[in-house]
């Protein structure tokens, strides 16, 4: 991690004020930093890229699933529809039925209509 | 650089170069008009085949629709160049990878046609993980008079057959069938962003965020990794591959672009693993103008070789750049697509629009470029006159053969009557995918769930 100039330094603040006049991009950057003061210094860095690489991640755990199946052997299976479709974690044991069912499009494309 | 062509053009077809010298007319629009757009109907890729007779679209629902250009008909002169549905099929379906807890979208990321070698047409379509080779063939004859079968297909009792006959071929209504001939799966850990058919017509490449693989069209159980930029320690990851393409004539050369705004050209003759590039294209940046947004807006969303193979074009968030393959230090031409968005980057970051991936394309003679923008605007640049034009794909200007009126975005205070202010732009109406007919001035523009086809004015 490279050494960063502390935000409070007045020299940097002054430079930002000057840049605001000359560069719309820097003005936008100042706006963003004002709204999100904790935003990382390296936006193009690994956090951002790793989030991009993890697109599509769902929290289904096969261990949890098998435990749930064993527990519920003698009970009725829980109905589908988890309270929150994106995160099935916590007290609730996730099962494949809880995940939003992605069925293939049975309808033909409207472009072909 | 001499001549109006702006580089070696494609032979045949009297297509004058230049997007802005021409007047563009509305030709057709495909898709539903309703306000509520289903996610599955959003078009995700558009591609003409090598002759321009076929136009393929892919959507988020994993479906492919292929349109065919009608033959010129003297009795209906105004049906010149109309595209009508030829075939449609479900290419990919949603999947769930339980092992990795990954949902695999059926969205078609790219379609690439193979050059035509016989009566059938072949194309490659890909989603995030799997590439498929589809064969589209016509059937217009049916055999009748089988010896062992009835007309309705039931088997005849062989002992009852007393005479032999030769089945005859009878014409039938044209049926277009699409069948998957090859499925190229399990070669990508990350999400496939590009596929590109090699000029040898035998191999093709597929690229994901960190790797590029080389396939043979006949072999599905093996693929060669030719680029791997995955760091040993993922914490050190600084850039990803955003697009890749084979050179149109040199079968050993390909390029790949990165999220840091660089392009690497690789030669497969130099080594089996092309981690070391042969050429590295990067425009020097003025360090004093660097901001939080610099790297994000420099990320290249598309790279396309010119038809001549002498140039390549890249698209980043705000501009389109043309590079001479012989010069790595900077592009030879830069065109601003929507510079007025530079003072809106903060909001565009907040609503994620800054990550939109626009594509770009060349016209057949390499004299003009086209790319999309917001508010259903798309831009064309004439390389020799340096003129540019902004046009809009909208239902309002969809009267048959209506000439498209150039649009203008107003950035300053005083807005003229026909101008639209930056703050009134609809950022949900993005034109990410456009295609230009390889030989004629016909363009296809995907506006969310609608496909617009425009042609130059017939004199």
Automatic annotation (TrEMBL), chain A:
Biased composition (Basic and acidic residues): 12-32
Ranges annotated as biased composition (Low complexity): 1-11
Top-rank taxon: Eukaryota
InterPro entries: Endosulphine
UniProt keywords, alphabetically: Cell cycle, Cell division, Cytoplasm, Mitosis, Phosphoprotein, Protein phosphatase inhibitor
Subcellular location as annotated: Cytoplasm
Residue ranges of the region described as Disordered: 1-49, 73-113
GO cellular component, one term: cytoplasm
GO MF, any single term: signaling receptor binding
GO BP, sorted A to Z: cell division; G2/M transition of mitotic cell cycle; positive regulation of gluconeogenesis
Major subcellular location class: cytoplasm
Record family assignment: Belongs to the endosulfine family.
Subunit text: Interacts (when phosphorylated at Ser-62) with PPP2R2D. Interacts with SNCA. Interacts with PPP2R2A; the interaction is direct and this interaction inhibits PP2A activity.
Function recorded in the entry: Protein phosphatase inhibitor that specifically inhibits protein phosphatase 2A (PP2A) during mitosis.
Name of the protein in its database record: cAMP-regulated phosphoprotein 19
Automatic annotation (TrEMBL), chain B:
Gene: PPP2R2D
Keyword Phosphoprotein belongs to the record: no
Gene3D superfamilies found in the cross-reference section: YVTN repeat-like/Quinoprotein amine dehydrogenase
SUPFAM superfamilies: WD40 repeat-like
GO terms, molecular function: protein phosphatase regulator activity
Organism listed in the record: Phascolarctos cinereus (Koala)
CC per GO annotation: protein phosphatase type 2A complex
Keywords of this entry: Repeat, WD repeat
Entry similarity comment: Belongs to the phosphatase 2A regulatory subunit B family.
Listed InterPro entries: PP2A_PR55, PP2A_PR55_CS, WD40/YVTN_repeat-like_dom_sf, WD40_repeat_dom_sf, WD40_rpt
Protein name as it appears in the record: Serine/threonine-protein phosphatase 2A 55 kDa regulatory subunit B
